[in-house]
Amino acid sequence: MKADIVIKNIDNLITLKGPNRARVNEEMREIGLINDGIVALKDDKIIYVGKGELPASIKTHKDTILIDGKGKTVTPGLVDSHTHLVHGGSREHELSMKLKGAKYLDILEAGGGIHSTVNATKEASFDQLYDKAKKSLDIMLGFGVTTVEAKSGYGLEDFDTEIKQMEVANKLNEDHYVDIVSTFMGAHAIPTKYKDNPRTFIDIIIDEMIPKVSERKLAKFCDVFCEKGVFSVEDSKEILEAGIRYGLLPKVHADEIEPMGGAELAAEVGCITADHLVAASEIGIKMMAEKGVIANLLPGTSFNLQTGKFARAKRMIEAGVPVALSTDYNPGSCPTENMQLVMSLASIVMKMTPEEVITAATINGAASLKLEEQIGSLEVGKKADLVIFDAPNLDYIIYHFGINHTDKVIRNGKLAFEKTTNIL
Questions:
Q1: How is the chain split into domains, by residue range?
Q2: How far is CA 248 from the centre of its chain?
Q3: How many Å is the maximal CA-CA distance in the chain?
Q4: Which residues of 369-402 are buried (b: 16+ CB within 10 A; e: fewer)?
Q5: Tell me: the pLDDT tens digits for 127-176?
Q6: Are residues 91 and 331 in contact, defined by beta-carbon separation less than 8 angstroms?
Q7: 3-state DSSP call for residue 296?
């Protein structure tokens, strides 16, 4: 077999070799490290992963791209499995409000927050949303992200805007190097129009929106913001179960601000992930572990909201909950596309080891999107998605925070990003 790309002399090759499922407990610290590693790619697949030289069965040819991994760390492509990628406008004006002590729900109650983004998204054209989201995807790719989840949720009762968001995400999935998985999140907030009658809006989501999303195959998942002042546990369960009936896999924004019982709901419904979980209860954590619900943690959001409260990542790992990490990129509570910064926050603030962090950002992120059979580890037969970091080891990537360590990104067997040298 002839290889199209060979990366050799890799100081630290992190393969994440292991079972094609979300890793738990000590498995999150078993990263399949190979020193003096070598990887061979053909078309869009990995054809060899090992140490030293290629075996005789793998050949190079005159057009084979040879990359020297000396001094580098190579990992699977990063998976950002919780974002609000497609949206209009920006909300930097809220910064001064937050600095004066306004909380997320205070801003929302005053008609700001998500309502501002809903208006901006509704007013934006398809092309404007596409161009804005593409710019963010370019940035994400540069930080080593090869797969992204994108939620709707900025149309709310304006279903045409919800559809527009998902259509933009799906078009970008066709056009861009980064793979995009779409999630329907019409239940992102109660529209002002239905503030005094939320039941009507819930019925619209269940009876009208979800069936059409399913029929048009616009999304893979259905998500709900289960939170005080937004959707109750009972309402969230009803919406998620409606999604399940129409083939949409369930996710839930759970216990972000108040201990609502969202983690328990995720276990009861059988959600693929429960996300945020800053206020998750001990009972909820144990239930998630028993049901195999992935905790998708978003430390960048806690950092930006200035709450001083972060999800109890270490407790969740000890309890047997598989943990993933994501940016939660959105215009309000976490306006960053920097997955590497999120990884550093997870370690520095939430005390996850570098090994747990890279597991959470790769194979567990892949599992949170039901893509663990295709991506998330560097093994023969999987997609050729990988990152070459200009860093001597994994610890250095986490320790030296706030910068971009990416040297090259290969996506689907193609060189998708390469760092340029600045000439001063």
A1: 5-76+377-418, 79-368
A2: 18
A3: 71
A4: bebbeebbbbeeebbbbbbbbebebbeebbeeee
A5: 999 999 999 999 999 999 999 999 999 999 999 999 999 999 999 999 99
A6: yes
A7: strand
Read out DSSP for 307-354? -S----HHHHHHTT--EEE-----SSS-----HHHHHHHHHHTT---H
If you compute the radius of gyration of the chain from its CA atoms, what whole number of angstroms results? 21
Weakest mean pLDDT among 44-48, 58-62, 98-102, 175-179: 98-102
Q: DSSP H helical segments within 216-277, as ranges? A: 233-245, 262-269
Q: Which CATH number fits domain 5-76+377-418: 2.30.40.10, 2.60.40.420, 3.60.21.10, 1.20.1090.10?
A: 2.30.40.10
**Under a CB-based contact definition with an 8 Å cutoff, are residues 81 and 296 in contact?**
yes
8 Å CB contact between 363 and 376: yes
Q: Which two tokens stand for residue 28?
A: 């999150």
Terminal alpha carbon distance of the chain: 44
Q: Provide the edge-to-edge strand list for the sheet that holds 45-51.
A: 45-51, 37-42, 5-10, 65-68
- Residue among 382, 396, 419, 380 nearest 73 (CA): 396
Sheet holding 406-411, edge to edge: 33-34, 12-14, 73-76, 386-389, 406-411, 414-418
Per-residue model confidence as pLDDT tens digits over 258-297: 999 999 999 999 999 999 999 999 999 999 999 999 999 9
